[in-house]
Structures are given as C-alpha cells and as structure tokens.
Amino acid sequence: MPLRPSRSSDYTVGWISAIQTEYVVACELLDEEYDPLPLNWENDNNVYTFGRISSHLVVLACLPKGKYGLTSATSVAKDMLRSFPSLRFGLMVGIGGGAPSSKHDIRLGDVVVSTPVGSSGGVIHYEFGKAIQNKAFLRTGSLSPSPPLLLAAIHQLSSLHERRGHQILKTIDDLVDGNSRLQKYRRPALEADVLYRATFTHADEGKSCKDICNPDIAETVLRVVRGPDHDDPAIHYGLIASADRLMRDAQVRDALAEAEDVLCFEMEAAGLMDSFPCAVIRGICDYADTHKNDVWQGYAAATAAAYARELLVTIPSGPHVDAPVPKSSTHPALVITPSKILFTVPFGRDPLFVSRTSIFKAVEDGLRENQRAVLYGLGGTGKSQIAIEFAHLYHREHPESHVLWIYAATHSRFTQSCQKITSWLRLPGSEDATKDMCSLLARWLDDEENGPWLLVLDGADDDDTILGQHTPNPAPVEPVIDFLPRLLSPTRQLLFTTRSRDIADSLVAAGTPIQVGPFSAEEAQLLLTRKLENEITIPSDGSGDKLLELLGYVPLAITQAAAFIRRNGGHFRQYLDAFEHSASDRNLQLSVELQDHRRERGLPNSIFRTWKLSFDQIQQQDPEAADLLSLMSLLDGQSIPEELIRDPRSSEMARRYSFGTIFSYSLANQSRNNTLSMHPLVQMSVRYWLECEDRMDEFVQKVVELLASNFPTVQYENRAVCQSLRPQAVTALQYQASCDGFGAQLLHKLAWFELDSGYLEQAESHVRKSYDARQRILGEGSLETLSTLSLYATILQARGKYVAAQDMQERALDSRREILGSDHPHTIRTMNNLATILRDRGKYDTAEELHRKALAAREKLLGHTHPDTLISVNNLALLLRDQGKYEAAEELHRRALEGQKETLGPRHPSTLTKLHNLALILTDQGKYQNAEQLHREALKGREEALGLNHPDTLKSLNNLGTVLANQGKFDEAEEVSRRALMGREKSVGPDHPDTLKSLNNLANVLVSQDMFQEAEKLQKAALEGRERVLGMSHPDTLRSVRDMAFMDRLAGRLEESAKKYERALEGFRLVLGESHPATRNCTQQHERLKADLEDSDTLEIQAVGRKKRKVYRRRARKAAND
User: Fold this and answer.
1) CB 3.0 to 4.6 Å from 1056: which of 177, 484, 778, 1048, for a disulfide?
2) How confident is the model over 146-190, as pLDDT tens digits?
3) Which residues pair with residue 60 across a beta bridge?
4) Per the database record, which ranges form the NACHT domain (predicted)?
C-alpha cells in the first residue's frame, strides 16, 4: 500500500460523477479520504475529493451543478488530466436509462458496464431529437474502447461473479446501515419497478406514475420475478449510447436498442472516451421513457458505485510513472520519464473526425502480427487523417513509446523530417551538418536498445522517392526504403500511407496492405453534418444524399464542399444545382483552394488538384496509362469495355502493365467480364486535368474515332456489342464541341441501333444531329447524307410523324434515283421505306404500287429468297391485309415466313416478325386458335431476343390480347392488354400511334366485360389522340370514330351514335373503298342503329344495352380486329 499521498502525481485513478447523488455515494465508498492537495487552480475549474480504494489512490470530481452533458464532461476530464498527470485510467460512474428487450432482461437497479461489441468500442455517440434525413436518431460514431487494463479487469471480475456472485448488495447494506442520512440509497420496493409498453406515455408531467399510470395494468409489460439463483441486481456488459439530450422516448429507445444492441442511455460518456481513457458504469434508474422514476436514482447510483469499487479491488496497483524507483525494487532499472518521450505528429486530433473502426482494427492487426501496416488508396480518402488519429490514440495507450512522424512525399521532405527527429533525440552527430541524418536516424531505429517507438511514414506516394524504381543507376540519392529499420518487434512498429498499391505491396513485406476507400453513406452524412458545423441545415428532401453521392463519398471532396457552402452563404441547394448542371461551376467548386490547416504545407487542398498530382505522376512514369486514363474519363464509367480503348500498337504485356498502374492508384476497377469502372468524380477530375493540360479536344477526338470505328452495323448478331457501346457513345459525344465526320458516323450508327431497340426519342435526336453535320460537312447530295436522311425518315415514321417522314423519304428517293439509278439496292430500299409510310398514312393504292415495284426489282436483282426480297414480300402482305385482301395476304405472309426461317433461322427477330404478321392475318380470318399459338410463339421469341420492353415485343403482347378477347378469354386479354399499354406508354410515349392502338384495343376488351365507364373513357382518349396525331381521315382515326359510335349506342345516345357512324362510314368509303372489310363492318353497324331509331318504344330502345350485350360484345371484338 502506498504512503499517504503528498503530490498530484501520486494519484493514478480518476473517478467522475455527473450529479450529486452519484458523487455522494462514490465518496462514501472510499476506504480512506485524504486532505485536499494544493493545485494550480488557474488551470483547473474542478473541485476534488481525494482518497483510496484498496491499493489505488483515487481522485473524484463531479460535474458543475446544473451543467450536464458531453461538453461539461469533457471539460472536467480535461482539467483532471492536466492536474493529475499520472492517471492510469478513469471511471465514469453514475445512473442511466435502461433499454430492456427480449434479448436483455434489464431491471431498475441493474448495472450496465461499457464493453466492446463487434466493431463498437463500448460507447456509441448518437444525435437524438433532431430530424436528420428523416431519421429519429443518427449514430455519429463508435468511440474508443476502455483501456486494455480495464477490459482485462472487467473480464476477470465477470468470471469471478459467475463463480461466486457479486458483493453489491452487501456493500450497499454496509453503507446505509452505518449512516442514517444515506437511506435513499436503499433498494426501493419491487412494486416500484414498472415497465410500461413503448406506446404508452406519461400523460401529465405534474403527476406521478403512481397516480395516473399504475391503474393501466393493460399497458404494463409482465415480467417473471427473478429467482434466488439469479444475481440481483444483474450486471450487463455491452454498448452504452451517449447523447447531449436525455432519452425520454420509448419507441426511439427500442429502435436504437434494436439497431445497435444498446443496453443503456446516458449523457456524458461520449465526451470522455476519446480523451479520458475510462470505463463507463451505469446503474439503471429508469427505462429511458416518459415514466421517470426518481425513487430509484439513489439505489442505482449505489449499485454502479459498488460495482466500480469491486472493479478497483480486482486491478493490481502499478508504479507511478514519474516516481523514483528504489534500488531494491524488482521493477526494471530503466524508467522513461514523459519529458524524454517524443511525439512528433504535426497535427492535433480532429474534433470532427469520423471514426472508421474496421480500418483502425486492420491497422492494429497489421502492427500486432507483422509490426507494420500500410494504408493505401486514392488521394483525399483520409489516409493521413486516419494515421493522425491512430497516432494520437497509440500515444495515449502507450505513453512510454515514441511516436515519430515523417513526411516522405519527396527526398527533401524526408531528409528534413529525419533532421528534426535526430535533433530532438539529441543523437550523437545530430549537430554536425556534414553527417547524413537519414542514416543516423536509421541506425538509431535499428538499434534494439532504443525504443519503444511507432514510426509513421506519411505521403509515400512517389516510386522514385520511396523505391528508386525509375531513377538512374547509380541513383543520385538513396530511396527511402533503404533507410527503413529492419529489426521490428511488438514495440518497434511502422505505419505507412501511400496512394500507390505497388508501393504498398513493396512496403508491407508480409500480410496485405489496407485499402482506404471512400466513406460509407452514413459516414459521409456524418462528416458533412459536422463540417457544416450545425450552422447549415441539410435539407430533408434527399438533396444531402444526392450531393454526397455526386461527391463519391470522398472525405476531402465532402470537406471541400462544406467549406465552399459555408463560405458562400450556406446556400445548400444552390451549390447542388450548380454542381449537377454546370461543368464550369463544378470545376470551380472542386478546384478552388480553401485553406485546410490539417494538411501538409505545399499540398493542394482541393480534390481536383490533389488528384492532379497522381495524374502528373502517372503521365511521367507511364504515358500509355495516362492516355488510357484520359480515354476512360470520356466514357460511361459504369462498364467500359476493355477492348474498346486498347491500342493495337501496344503489346498485351504493355497494356496489362498500364492498366496495373491505373489500378495501383485506385483510379479504376476491373470486373470479371473484361469491363472497367471509374467513379464519376474521378472522371471529372481527369477531364479537369485534360483541360488544364489543353488536351481535352485531342482525347475527345480520339475516343469518338474509336467508337465510330468499333460500333458495328445493326444486325441481330451484333446487338450485344451495340448495347454495350451505346452508353459509351452517348457519353463521349456530349464532350464534342462541334460534330465532325467521325461524330456524324457514330451518331448515325447509334440512331440506327436505337431505332432497332425502341429508343425512339433518343434515336430522333441523334439522327438529327448526324444529318445536320453531314449536310454541313459533305453536302445534301452525298451518299452518306442521303443514307442519314432516309434513316431520319424511318425514325420519324416509327414515332408516328408520318407527314415529315414522307417528305424526307421522297427527297431521299429522288436523290438516290438521280445519283445511283432506279435499280440500285439503296434506291429500292428507299422506295420500300416510302411505301411503308404511305401505308401508315392510309394511302393504300400508291403504297401498293411502290411495294410491287420494289418487290419486282428485288426479285430480279437479288433473287426470290434474299432477306431484302422477303422484306418486300412481308410489307406487301401487310398492305393487302389493310385492304381486306386476306387470302392473298396470308399466302404472301407464309412465303415470307418460310423464306426467313430458311435463311435466318426460326429465332431471328426478322423471322419472328413474319410469324407475328401471319398470326395477324389468321386473326382477321377468324382462325383464332392458330393465331393465338403463333402470337404466343412470337411473343416468347421476342422477349428472349429483344427484351420485355422492345416495341416489337409490345406489339406481340397487344395483338395477343386481341385474339384472346376474340375467344372470350377476357380476364387474360385484359391483363395482357394493360401490360401492352403500360409498356408502350413508357417506351414510345402516350401519343404514339402504337400506344393509341393499345388504348383503343383495351377499351374494346373492357366493353366485352361490361366495364363501360372505363371503356368509354379510353375510347375517347384514343379518338382524340388519333385525330391529333394521325389526322381526321386516317383509317385508325375512323376506327376510333366507329367504336365511339358503338359506345354511344350502348349508352342509349342514339342520335350521337348516328352522327359518328355517318362520319366513319363516309371516311371509310373515301379512304378504303366500299369493298373493304372495315367499310362493310361499319355499314352493318350503321344499319342496326337505324333499325333501333325506327323502333317506336323509347324504353326498349334505351334498354338495348342491357338486353343485347352478348351480341354487342361479339361486335366489339370484331371492331377491334378491323
């Protein structure tokens, strides 16, 4: 047992209480209480009690009255540490709110002790009562664990309790039995421990729970009474949640307890754990809800203090760090005083630091197992900040160890750091300017007599400086690696930071280097909140998440964004809008140099300029890698085909080496399917670098040429390649300031593929740009321009813009006839395309004439089985179907189908088109079962070959719905028709002719199911759309007029029905002729209406919709097929 203390340095344990109740019982549990010591009160605002528990000299302090929470606890601990330099550890002992659950049977009076769980150190810090991205609470970090000595003692005491039980009740009984003034520390009656359901709140703050809550037995949670074999109070080990606000919400309590496995809530520990190494011990006085229970506070404070006393008894006393050791002592002869310990980290701890527990653990594991650890990753991801924080924590845990910091970005900075350290260590020769200080320090580090120490080598980014790989032989200076100590041990360790994986692999020696990537979304959110210093509220509409995603969760980028927002008035949304929509604003935001005192002097503070250092380094070491990096920055970063950017002049080995350089700097990643990925923020940074180097246009030209050369023609076997290159082409083209010949070529190919794949809006935009560029560069009469003009017309046709499409296709046909002649395949193709537009416009006679000319020319030029000939056969068959010539149309459809099967195979999209068209003509002839079978076969093939949302797939879906309705399969017909309508609305838009056709067909199916109200609404929308898009006299418009007339008739609006029938019939006769099936069908319906009008019984006329619906269903289905 030590002598009666006379100096502040004699005290080795600090005990902190938050309130008077806790402080009183702590003082009463001292074995001896000593007189106060004279202290420097100018630097310490605490008032202390001094004493002894077992062999430990303990100093006790309480937070100022009325000043509770994290800040006050931090201040008390800070002053205590300053006045008592020999404290080995601390204890934070008092009361807290319990978090009972099905997993943890926590009762009032139980004790909770902070211990690590998973990646959490024992105490987590959270923010509560403040809406943060729509969350009731936000975990803001896991704090440092208790010192190893305390954790070992807690484990020992827990084992002892399991074997023999604890002495808490005896300690409390001895305390209160001997002092009548301490009766409030006795245990209250068991009936006073009531746990209410989380949803039941205390209604009146002015009344006690006993008065207004106890009668509500239904709102209490029934719990089994603890038996004699159960420790009571129980001791629980695990996580304690700490915030600056009292937890009084049982539902939030339960949510946080479930999410984090929290046992207890309190208000001080988060202010201590990272600066005051301690254990947190809490007696449970309430259940962290609205039912506060002051009667348990005294007993809960006593149970916590009694446990803390048992813990101290378990811990052996240690020597005082600065006390002289007697000669007879068995302790080691060498005792290092604090004044001789070097701590050369050039930065203090960051109060806004966001802990990265998994990385810290990996560093600890690396140092323990291999005596060295290497942090590597992209610049700005926080490697140095992690090293700074780790160094401070290491110094706290190992106060006897030197912590030496060397900045190794260049030879000169490395040498300067070595000079300073040798001087501080006062090594022999450190005053001699002729000596090599790097070698001097290296020899000292390699001497096993010197230590313990941790050496941090920060900024080891340059191959030449660190490894000497690119310097001439012999090198003008030795690389840093030659000066590193070889003789390492558990007390002589190395920690490195570098941007290069190659350097990391060289330095780690054994084990695996530790990659430091961007933050998780939660970590990024926390950093942004802290960096905005609670002055600026992050909007709760998700814009905070959006900004963090755009910033790639990179710490330096987030820090820079927060500084920019603060500096410019706190306009959060304004910053985000500028970042998203303006490249120049984004470049300014991410390149401006805002002062950051936590970075090395001379280092850039912006993310763009930070990464520029890496790009410059790559350019110098591996120019081919820099070129690859530049090309990748102009492509879609999600899936860049590796083959696309391969330089055919380079060998496979050279290419692998260059990609390795990029991967080494964590600038891109490689997937298994030979594709590469690069984060958008990295791409932005590379483009900024290219602009700074005035090479942006050069690489835009290169990447567009690459894509124009590699984008294949649109054939079925090329679909996968086209699909993979489409996002690359779209991305690259946006950087081309003025479209040139290669750009026009790429736009043409891209638009052709988008037409084939159903991306019609994008196809029109791209073909327009291609046509404008080719017209400007090559002139209107060039073959390339005419090819794009014809494609332009086809795309407009697909979008239902028939008038403009016809005009363009006629111009293309006239020019091709003049330049190539009437019999050239391109001329014939243009003639065929024009005929299809005329058919879509209902100009059947002119269309038939052109189709027959195109077919005859192709049969003569290409033969009867050529795919182009079969296309003409198919198109003529479709026209004959429109004209009501079903038998002739069926014969041609079968010829086209058999020919396509033979030349292209049964699963080719062109073959499936012929199959689908044959099913249409069979439907028209009432051969519904055969038609259904073919439609299902075509639908399945198209889904597999083209995808679920391709226009051709949706066409099959739509027409399958029609043939199902014709067979009375109304439920399936409705489901299929709705799918087709939704798909077309999404794929081609609500005003496309195909969408309007689906709208009309669904209405007819609904009529068949007596769903007249919805059917009439859809029919009206289809008619209005067709009048607007196709014109008043288009056959499809007239079909909608006829169907609306039928709806009027069903509703008893006979006069309105008659007017619509007359309009439709007049249009059909004019456009299709008297003999067309649509004309005949409309005539029949009109005659039936006239018969209804001649009926003198008005009531019977109005009831026609009810009496004859089955007949009308059949007519509705027939109308849908015309």
Assistant:
1) 1048
2) 888 899 999 999 998 988 899 999 999 888 886 878 989 999 988
3) 15, 49
4) 373-534
- The verdict on whether omega for the bond into residue 474 sits within 30 degrees of 0, i.e. cis, is yes
Is the pLDDT score of 339 beyond 70?
no
Helix boundaries (H) for 511-643: 521-531, 543-550, 555-567, 572-581, 583-591, 607-621, 623-632
Burial label, 652 (beta-carbon count in 10 A; 0-12, 13-18, 19+): exposed
Let me know: does 999 contact 1021? Beta carbons within 8 Å: yes
Look at residue 313 in the predicted model and tell me its pLDDT. 92
- 48, two tokens: 């202390």
Closest CA to 496 of 405, 583, 370, 625: 405
Give the number of residues written for the chain. Answer: 1122
Q: Which pLDDT score is estimated for 358?
A: 92
Burial class (CB in 10 A: 0-12, 13-18, 19+), 179: exposed
Tell me what pLDDT residue 336 has. Answer: 28
Taking CA atoms, 342 is separated from 336, 395, 425, 443, 784, in Å, by 11, 10, 8, 17, 76
Band (1106; pLDDT cuts 50, 70, 90): very low
Return the structure tokens found at 317: 């006393």
pLDDT of residue 403: 92
DSSP string, 737-789: SS--HHHHHHHHHHHHHHHHHT-HHHHHHHHHHHHHHHHHHH-TTSHHHHHHH
Give the separation between CA 465 and CA 445, rounded to whole angstroms: 20
The angle that helices 555-567 and 607-621 make with each other, rounded to 10 degrees, is 140
φ, ψ dihedrals at 794, nearest 5°:
-65, -40
**Are the C-beta atoms of 11 and 5 separated by less than 8 Å?**
yes
- Asked if 495 and 363 touch (Cβ cutoff 8 Å), the reply is yes
Give the range among 355-369, 614-628, 902-916, 1092-1106 with minimum mean pLDDT: 1092-1106
Contact assessment for residue 239 and residue 260, using Cβ atoms and an 8 Å cutoff: yes
Cα 702 from Cα 681, distance rounded (Å): 22
d(CA 1118, CA 1080): 12
Residues 685-739: pLDDT tens digits?
A: 899 889 888 999 999 999 999 999 999 987 777 878 888 899 999 999 999 888 8
Angle CA 668–674–678, to nearest 5: 20
Cis, peptide link before residue 233, omega less than 30° from 0: yes
166 exposure class (CB count in 10 Å sphere: 0-12, 13-18, 19+): buried
Strands laid side by side in the 372-376 sheet: 402-407, 453-458, 492-498, 372-376, 514-515
Q: Three-class SS of residue 303?
A: helix
DSSP state of 955: H
Three-state DSSP at 671 gives: coil
3-state secondary structure of 344: coil
> Which tens digit of pLDDT belongs to each residue from 204-217?
666 666 666 665 56
Q: Which residues contact 828 (CB under 8 A, 6 or more apart)?
A: 854, 857, 858, 861, 868
590/610 Cα distance (integer angstroms): 10
Q: Rounded distance, CA 577 to CA 580, Å?
A: 5
**Residue 229 or residue 447, greater confidence:** 447
* Token output for 215: 């009668």
Orientation angle between helical segments 741-757 and 783-798, nearest 10 degrees: 30
Phi, psi of 907 (to 5 degrees): -100, 0
**3-class SS of residue 708:** helix
Q: Are 133 and 348 in contact (CB under 8 A)?
A: no
| DSSP per-residue codes, 830-847 | HHHHHHHHHHHTT-HHHH
Task: Tell me if the bond preceding 452 is cis, omega within 30° of 0.
Answer: yes
Amino acid making up residue 1065: L
